[in-house]
Amino acid sequence: MKAFHENRSYGEGLPVQISRIRNINFLAHWHHDLEFIYVASGLVQVGINSEMRLLKAGEFAFCGSGDIHYYDNGSADSEVLLIIFNPRLIGSPAGWPEQRGLLSSFIPYTSTRGMGMSDWEQEALKELAAIMQRIEQEGSIEGEQTDLVVIGLLHMLCGLTLRYVPVGASAPKRSARSAAHLVMMQELLHDLEQNCGLPLTLQDGADRARMSVFHFSRFFKNVTGMNYNTYLNELRIARAERLIVSTNAKLIDIALECGFGNVRTFNRVFRQLRGCTPSELR
Question: Beta strand pairing status for 4-5 and 25-30?
Fold first, then answer.
């Protein structure tokens, strides 16, 4: 799992990443790049800016620049098609969408099952899936003028997304407050990753957000899909994993460096989150 502010590196060629991922799990994070998600099979829990959905095969979501999002596959078997790219490819160097009047990042628009999707939603999913699959195909063949074709398809993907995702104007005060909370969470997630080895507490997070512990705890879980301490432990264990496999440092030293007070707690949390002990990984 990765988290916080992800600075994506594309290497040579177009700044586009096209991938199919089975059983995706990814901590809450954000980036400037645009991210489009199509569920090819199974069920995947997707959270975007406090809105969470359990998407099933054939459904769609997207993340604009700066949106905080996460994936939780749980125990299900799933496959998703992800297309991630720099917004400058569609002429938007300052981020996209430029006007944040979108009411949802998901199609279908509501999580209500049983009533069925509208004809409009079904048409949207059909067109968006076709474009994403065509982009995937073009990205794999490297044919003549592939880059130009892919850029054109990305324009179409964004245009259709804006056509089919509902828009509306929210109250200015509420919109400004939501934007401020989003920026605060972006900064907080970055700080947690940078300083997860310190003895950070829920109260520290609440103070950083200028909220009560009660409201901060609820807000943090709504945005990230997990409680504050679990998120922090995921960061610590991910850092510990890297140190275990890449260094010869003693486990007690790794435990202390990653924010655990003793080896016993380190072992317990590691087993809880990874299903094995640190020594078994090494």
Answer: parallel
Whether residue 97 is preceded by a cis peptide bond, meaning omega within 30 degrees of 0, is yes
* Annotation: CATH topology of 4-164: Jelly Rolls (2.60.120)
For residues 119 and 108, give the distance between their C-alpha atoms in angstroms, rounded to a whole number.
11
* Architecture of the structural domain at 196-281: Orthogonal Bundle (1.10)
Enumerate the domain spans of the chain: 4-164, 196-281
This prediction has a pTM of 0.84
Compute the CA torsion angle 91, 96, 102, 104 (nearest 10 deg).
120
Name, in order, each residue with C-beta under 8 angstroms of 188's C-beta and a sequence gap of 6 or more: 205, 208, 209
The answer to whether 92 and 34 have CB atoms below 8 angstroms apart is no
Per-residue model confidence as pLDDT tens for the chain (282 residues): 444 555 666 667 889 999 999 999 999 999 999 999 999 999 999 999 989 999 999 999 999 999 999 999 988 899 999 999 999 999 998 888 876 567 889 999 876 555 678 899 999 999 999 999 999 999 888 777 899 999 999 999 999 999 998 776 544 444 666 778 888 999 999 999 999 999 999 999 999 999 999 999 999 999 999 999 999 999 999 999 999 999 999 999 999 999 999 999 999 999 999 999 999 987
Return the percent helix, strand and coil in the chain, to nearest 5: 45, 20, 35
Tokens of 156: 């179409």
Task: Specify whether the CB–CB gap between 35 and 17 falls below 8 A.
Answer: no
Say which residues have a Cβ less than 8 Å from residue 97's Cβ, sequence separation at least 6.
64, 162
